[in-house]
């Protein structure tokens, strides 16, 4: 048995999301931001029932037990997918945390459209007080770091430059 074609292509889209080590390119800036809704493959105005359906559908899709040809899949990739899907569901099923997340997404999109990016850094290389070239520091909260699916923008506390952090 092999992994059906559609799952294979879905997974390869996902692996890009988590394991992209490509150099940071301008093109990255213009593509659509990936979100927890993207992970559940579900519109942002979905009802709770729709989110739940999407969650179970995605879990079935990515769960190693459900994929016959699991040896062909990178095991850590499969684990990451399950973790990401579960995390998306846990965040979005709670109306309060979903509201906060939606708000954060709106802010991020606004920044994305007008921000001047001063620095770019990968999450794993992030300093807790990431310095800005103006001599100030970027304001990065741990709670926000947790919401990054592929990248996010953070303001400098002292000037108009932004820091772009890649997951
Ligand atoms: Zn600054």
Number of strands: 3
The first-level CATH class name of the domain at 33-93: Mainly Alpha
**Fraction of residues in helix:** 40-55%
Order of helices and strands: HHHHHHEHEE
**Looking at CATH, which topology of the domain at 33-93 would you report?**
Helix Hairpins
Q: What fraction of residues sit in β-strands?
A: 5-15%
- Outline the biggest β-sheet: 3 strands, mixed
Uncertain ranges: 15-30
Mean pLDDT: 81
Calculate Rg over CA atoms.
17 Å
Number of helical stretches of at least 4 residues: 7
- Structural class, judged by helices and strands? mainly alpha
CATH architecture of the domain at 33-93: Orthogonal Bundle
Assign the CATH superfamily of the domain at 33-93.
DnaJ domain
- The backbone outline, from C-alpha atoms, is globular
- Sheet with most strands: strand arrangement: 1-3-2
The small-molecule ligands in this entry are: zinc ion
N- to C-terminal separation? 34 Å
Domain DPH-type MB: 131-167
Domain J: 35-105
GO molecular function, one term: ferrous iron binding
Family: Belongs to the DPH4 family.
Topology of this structure?
Layout: H1 5-19, H2 26-30, H3 36-40, H4 48-62, H5 75-93, H6 95-114, E1 116-122, H7 142-145, E2 151-155, E3 161-166
Parallel strand pairs: 1-3
Antiparallel strand pairs: 2-3
The structure holds zinc ion (ZN).
General description of the model:
Residues 131-167 form the DPH-type MB domain. One of its GO terms (molecular function) is ATPase activator activity. Residues 35-105 form the J domain. InterPro entries: DnaJ_domain, DPH_MB_dom, DPH_MB_sf, J_dom_sf. It comes from Steinernema carpocapsae. There is one protein chain. Strands 1-3-2 form a 3-stranded mixed beta sheet, covered by helices on one side. Helix 4 packs antiparallel against helix 5. It has a domain at 33-93: Helix Hairpins (Orthogonal Bundle), CATH 1.10.287. The protein has 7 helices and 3 strands. The protein is mainly alpha-helical.
